[in-house]
Protein 1
Amino acid sequence: MLVVMSNSATEKDIQRVAMFLEAKGFEARISHGEVRVVVHAIGVKEEVDQRDFELLPGVLEVIKVTTSYKLAARVSQGQDTIVEVNGVKFGDKYTGLIAGPCTIESYDQMDKTAQELSESNVKILRGGAFKPRTSPYTFQGLGEEGLKVIRSVADNHNMAVTSEIMDISQIEMFMRYVDILQIGARNMQNFNLLKELGKIHKPVILKRGLSATYEEWLMSAEYIMSGGNNQVILCERGIRTFEKYTRNTLDLSAIPVIKKLSHLPIIVDPSHATGLRDKVEPMSRAAVAAGCDGLIIEVHHNPEVAVCDGAQSLYPWQYDLLYKQIKQIAPIVGKEIV
Amino acid sequence: MLVVMSNSATEKDIQRVAMFLEAKGFEARISHGEVRVVVHAIGVKEEVDQRDFELLPGVLEVIKVTTSYKLAARVSQGQDTIVEVNGVKFGDKYTGLIAGPCTIESYDQMDKTAQELSESNVKILRGGAFKPRTSPYTFQGLGEEGLKVIRSVADNHNMAVTSEIMDISQIEMFMRYVDILQIGARNMQNFNLLKELGKIHKPVILKRGLSATYEEWLMSAEYIMSGGNNQVILCERGIRTFEKYTRNTLDLSAIPVIKKLSHLPIIVDPSHATGLRDKVEPMSRAAVAAGCDGLIIEVHHNPEVAVCDGAQSLYPWQYDLLYKQIKQIAPIVGKEIV
Amino acid sequence: MLVVMSNSATEKDIQRVAMFLEAKGFEARISHGEVRVVVHAIGVKEEVDQRDFELLPGVLEVIKVTTSYKLAARVSQGQDTIVEVNGVKFGDKYTGLIAGPCTIESYDQMDKTAQELSESNVKILRGGAFKPRTSPYTFQGLGEEGLKVIRSVADNHNMAVTSEIMDISQIEMFMRYVDILQIGARNMQNFNLLKELGKIHKPVILKRGLSATYEEWLMSAEYIMSGGNNQVILCERGIRTFEKYTRNTLDLSAIPVIKKLSHLPIIVDPSHATGLRDKVEPMSRAAVAAGCDGLIIEVHHNPEVAVCDGAQSLYPWQYDLLYKQIKQIAPIVGKEIV
Amino acid sequence: MLVVMSNSATEKDIQRVAMFLEAKGFEARISHGEVRVVVHAIGVKEEVDQRDFELLPGVLEVIKVTTSYKLAARVSQGQDTIVEVNGVKFGDKYTGLIAGPCTIESYDQMDKTAQELSESNVKILRGGAFKPRTSPYTFQGLGEEGLKVIRSVADNHNMAVTSEIMDISQIEMFMRYVDILQIGARNMQNFNLLKELGKIHKPVILKRGLSATYEEWLMSAEYIMSGGNNQVILCERGIRTFEKYTRNTLDLSAIPVIKKLSHLPIIVDPSHATGLRDKVEPMSRAAVAAGCDGLIIEVHHNPEVAVCDGAQSLYPWQYDLLYKQIKQIAPIVGKEIV
């Protein structure tokens, strides 16, 4: 930690900071610059709140120089984490693909969609059984019945399954039906849930919260990893900004940044980010060109009758076209779609 | 719902929209303006997604004209909701006060703080037993032991208790110790938790999410109310913006806006919003001057040794001074502090 | 400047940073912490771009510890700046008031409004002659004719005049008619204009840009002050956030923050911030309760027929009522309205 | 314009709205829905402020259904605008490239950079002579001398020139040296400057303001076009959000959105958006994959000694590599780099 003193700090102010630091267990090292004095606090104390120092007389600013995430940090391991499910790889030089409808509506809907997707080489099927809806008056998902449907359909097409979990009480149920558990943006800081998912042995897709910084996102991954589960896939799905024309603002810069800060794979959800089908294709191609480790895309065999989020779902033929485009883009940026 | 057609929409486009609306169960009424045609969809269908219409050829924009919150809406009842706990009232012409430390650390700490606060007429004590911390490596609260402490201390000083609940599994425990349950900003859209709190018979403080719009916030209140619990207190605690000098940006305009849209009381948490003690006082006074229905303020008998968020906690003497100031401001704006 | 090295930085990386710093004219002082090494760059070089160091191998982060604003900084002078115009004071313990319509429409309109305002003790009249409008197809103001009108009306009522300047070419004209020049939010970083206003001898109201940080705002004040004009009044008028219900989000925390960072007076424009009349009153009271040094409020003798922004203009009787309320609030927070 | 009445609006409220609309010159058409009444205002009146209606009793919301930009709107012409300079085309199926240093430092620097860039087929050279710097104490550019340098160097390498103009007084000078005028983000709403650039006969690159919505951006283009200059190129360069790790958040969704709303070409500046060299390459590729009409990229023959923004400048060999990648990506998305 670095405590930067203000121009007008007195010698007494500096000594007070040093003493206060030592009382908290740090070694205090004072460095005089041309304009400012900086006190370097040597030591790592998780519980220290830097604002306690900001309030001391003569202090201008306090800067933390240790990151709070450790296991998720790039420096913690020599190479990129690769998560592999059903032969699909996410991370390092691999770009994995996941597709399926927003919501599990019926066996027939899932089967038709899966049939079409399997022709485009999709090996991981997505679909929501428990839906976090802003309004209590809208469809909340089929529940366990939905999980049974997606499992059965996926088995028939040799696919793996991913679906969103909303509550700790659902973990046991999800372990029976699902291969990759998803944590939605609204639950990115549901710390009790994260801790429990640290104890399971299945991969977790952790979506970025609507207004979460990169650091907070990695800290949430750390919650899972510190419990013993290293199979975390980060998923950028748009952030909230002043621009309301698109549902959210897809932050593709997250790709190179996360790859610098962490060894974890980062995938992109262009469907929730943009909210409209005609934006999904260009943004998917852009994500691959930026070097993402995967995509999760909403596809419905007949979006016009979809119960939920049909407007952002691709038609299967659109997905197929997109698949062919990104297969060409990936090798240009040194990636492989398997 | 209103479907606004673009300048270049053809007669066929307009007819397609009308037919599509009728297929969804609406009556379609077409109105020709000087530049644009507007199709008014008569009827209310919760499940209709307006984006399905935005994607039809010739459509410029689709506008929902019904609000999704009903019970929380001002029009749903003739007068302001007043929540009363231990003689303290929130809502209508009353401004209620809640104070206490961020975290329950020990019996001694709670007792000393409560003793000082009772001298400033505080009748509702706050304190966290389960803490939602960004990092898994920091103190996570005393848990049930903490709830026992705050209950016991509050009883000794004739105070009521409020504390933050983080998970459905804790409801039964909280019902034993706590008079008002708090939902933190990170859980504002933990819909499963909201639904369960709709079934209890105690007031709930619902904090605004870091990037929640007014409408989403009221929709979350609606989740609780639709379960049968009308005792919801909304709490503004700052939103996330580009400005990082303060921890969050306290949005005091929420006060007059929420009072226009809803009958529910709105209180303000200046401690979490600003994150620094010297900003808590001016922002508390500002909130009262803007007509808020209450304040929840962090106070610690000795902030310098607080385990958590000491930097934003007032000293008891500061709280007392602030109390005297807001007692003077309230009547100027037609409010009463009881 | 502080260069924080990453965990994985080698001794060679550290030496490279030190050498690079010395090449740029700094003295490099290396400090070894428990986890990280920090290199303290001693010296002040305006032209150095900290990102040049961020790109060096092994560097985690680079932190500037000198603020770029000097004359605007609190430490640059012993006491608060007080700007006085026509007996009205802004700054230190004084809260000054400015009122008038958004736009100068006619002599009759200005005269009627000024007549009413003079009865509420207003001594500085506002009104726009050149309007920065988002659309080229809307009314752009009366121009110089408007300035003549406001000057003449103000003289008749013993008032001073403030109006917004948009371009360097207008300075000479404004010097003839106006007592305080306003720089609008869109021009906060029109550096050529700021430089020229540094050469005049009249006070300048500098509105905060829609997405300007506190530091950028103070840097813009520095542009004016470094030219020799110290009479700068900062004006908070709302920032752009994700919340669109209000026109902008009024950031009242700016008041205590700016008062900590700078000696310059800070006033608030609640009319542009909220955009609706019924929000102007509570936010004006809140601003005074938070300790602002002044208010600039839109008032029109007949808002319903106002050419521009009538919706956010108070009726004169509303202004009078508000004036009476804030006269009572100011002394509670140690301020005086003169 | 559509006036949506609240649930509790009375018949009298509805009639008042209708009368008020007619007084403003509209025809009022009342439509009764299941829950709400909507009044459709027939007619187009530029000067009407919708908030005047929002304040009437019983009104819930007022919605404008006409866009304010007309010439910039897609419907205003049958096909995409193509801007062509020195054989480089922007728009429709063409992706044009611009490269060069942030700042013109010397003849030698420009010549070396241009020499390298010409080997990568660059035909339009960028370089700033007047720099909008946040601090008054940093290098402000070489001024006219800089324009002479870039013109002369460009002529030697058969290149065209683009540079940023900051003030109306510079227009005549820029017309002598520059082929494409740039308007920086801070000047996007400098309406006086926009109006003057409407009168010239050279293309203008209009950068998006840091917090400008798509609509405001197109309205600023409209200012230029309404003066008679149709050669406007829009440039996305990142917006300001809560995420501070990158300098700005590059909003690539702007590409498909602008292409839907307007016929004008849209290019991307990945250098200013991200602020760091290692993010420029992935974001450039992403922009091309999303279908942009051009890129403007900072390249310096020796970034480590650049006076300004060296950290975000590519080395010439990096540019060359990037050029080869995007040449491959463009045809996959139906574009051509000429």
Note: The first helix of chain B runs from residue 11 to 23.
Protein 2
Amino acid sequence: MNNLLVAQSGGPTSVINATMAGIVDYAKKTNKIDKIYGGLHGIKGIIGGQLIEIHKIFSDNKNLNLLTQTPSSALGSSRYKLKDDKAIYEKIIDVLKRFGIGYFIYIGGNDSMDTVLKLSNYCRENSIDDIKIMGVPKTIDNDLYITDHTPGFGSAAKYIATTTAELFCDLRVYDMPLVGVLEIMGRNAGWLTASAALSGVNGGDSPNLIYIPEVEFDEDKFIEDVKKELAKTHYVLIALSEGLKDSDGVYLCEKTSKKGIDAFGHKMLSGAGKYVEQLIKSSDLGCRTRGIELSLMQRAAGHIVSLTDIEESKLLGAKAVERALEGYTAEMSIIIRESSNPYKVTISSVDVAKVANFEKTVPLEWLNEEKNNVNEKMIEYIYPLIQGEYNTLYENGIPKHIKLF
Amino acid sequence: MNNLLVAQSGGPTSVINATMAGIVDYAKKTNKIDKIYGGLHGIKGIIGGQLIEIHKIFSDNKNLNLLTQTPSSALGSSRYKLKDDKAIYEKIIDVLKRFGIGYFIYIGGNDSMDTVLKLSNYCRENSIDDIKIMGVPKTIDNDLYITDHTPGFGSAAKYIATTTAELFCDLRVYDMPLVGVLEIMGRNAGWLTASAALSGVNGGDSPNLIYIPEVEFDEDKFIEDVKKELAKTHYVLIALSEGLKDSDGVYLCEKTSKKGIDAFGHKMLSGAGKYVEQLIKSSDLGCRTRGIELSLMQRAAGHIVSLTDIEESKLLGAKAVERALEGYTAEMSIIIRESSNPYKVTISSVDVAKVANFEKTVPLEWLNEEKNNVNEKMIEYIYPLIQGEYNTLYENGIPKHIKLF
């Protein structure tokens, strides 16, 4: 039982493969692991026995570097939620034993940490102590507890800050009132939307208004806010989260459309930006408006990752292997921030039960008084996470990626 | 009358400022020009006398390099179309004379070349021969005649090819049928949409289906096309132009929405992707679908420009100054392709009358037989244009930009 299994779950990020690279690299260098397997499509694929041997693919560093710069889950993903069905757990343990897996490292977000917790609880209850199960965080949403931030967030924030700066260059060119409405991911947490404010780090423009799900959205107040900004300048950029809700707790997007529910019972969202765009159009603001969605690009833009994020992602992966080899189980690697300026972190590990199923939202004291923008505390928090550029290898004009299945 | 005026017009690109840098750099180095002015907001701003002296700002190369890497029109833009109103022409000439402008270089697309033509015709008819008026092409749409391609297209194509490759990494992670619908700019010409095919240059995925405005869009055939692709793979990416029309010549976006008309009488479009997404949802294809719009990012993503495009943009700008100083007027700088492999071009100049008001669309023989994708001729044409990476200067985690007004 000296083999290691790594798998990925949930919505991809542009550095989730850097974490996998950190895991594979650490596992390669220790003499305690025989074979390294990749589980395809997360826990769902593992149940189906979809394990591929990846040791040889990464025998040299060339492919490991390609893996590091390939966005999204190279092993595929799933949104399968473990039910309280004993047969499923038995099936998983069967597969792990069949492949001689002593160490299972699961890279994912909140729901994936729930899987790590449940599976390790099952092992504990059934006295299976030769399989160590560890979680490594990832999510652009940055909504996990205890860890200072999550891998994936810094790169998404860098993409968003850069894109916001570029959109400002575009929106300001015409000499007429224009309001850009930038919809950013974030169902319940406003971290990503807040990162648009970093477009101003070099003294340039930053969003005039920022609306996040932690603050209820008031339509009348909103129109007043925009009016005030238009009185100051001819171009206004509003950054807002897809998960904005009104005072009755109704998602703005639900006001125009009825969407489905995913396997986790989350409502599937889209369209808060469109709704707000429509609000502006039907107002008396007398401006043009342009809606922009950062869509999948904000989590897939591997060509503009944060070097800080890449390095931390690798370290968190390595930490999970290190702890598993030391005999620990049911933990998640975390980042502890020692200081912001100079930026200094420690990579550590905690009981996954402390993390799973909690959502970390934006502290309201990191917003301005009117709660329609961020303040310097938020900037100080995000700033170090977007620092550094990764030296991406291009071939034939585009970044080179690796394909594992 | 030895001063030079540069101005920008139409929709911005991520290298329109590289052209301006090429103009300023050439003008600085010759001893034939006294002052360099920038006209704000294109011809509209010039009519209003909005000229700023930019000679000193660019006295060192640092700011010239920042200008090169700043996306969108640093001097602002306009969509003002010159009418046949003598008073307007007199006003423009008045302003040019007042500022001692002997050379006016206008960077823009089709409509801007129309301005260059009309203004130089006016000068000719009124024996004003001490003002040379030159055009330099720019447009991500690549729809200008005579020049092999337009500056701005290569960088947009590089962004689109890269983003398409990244989106493929994202779309394929889940083990269930999914169709991505990628809407790309292009009212009447499919060049940009075609460039999504370059995502496959390293052997990776490229769009399963590509629909451009040059081919009428048949809904039934479309559903059949998608069905065939889904039979081969669980993830399908469709790239399509915003300007798709049905067999009656009706824009797909008009089928769902009624939009305005811009100053040039063009219909303002959006929503072909949304329409097609809806088509898939209401079909019996049994797949999920996800619409993605590249929106303003495809013309503003200055952080991922093509080095080839940057270099050519500068050379075209310099050529216009060179020709103007030699006494020519009413010309537009062009790129002549000598060969694709190895890629070799000549920078030249032609009578702007040959270019203005014509639109260059995609030759149908560069598409596959079914006209739902491109063939190797298109790849060969676009390939050299996306080559090379520009060494962008980052500061505090994002690319540094310059602001001129």
Note: Chain A has a mean pLDDT of 94.
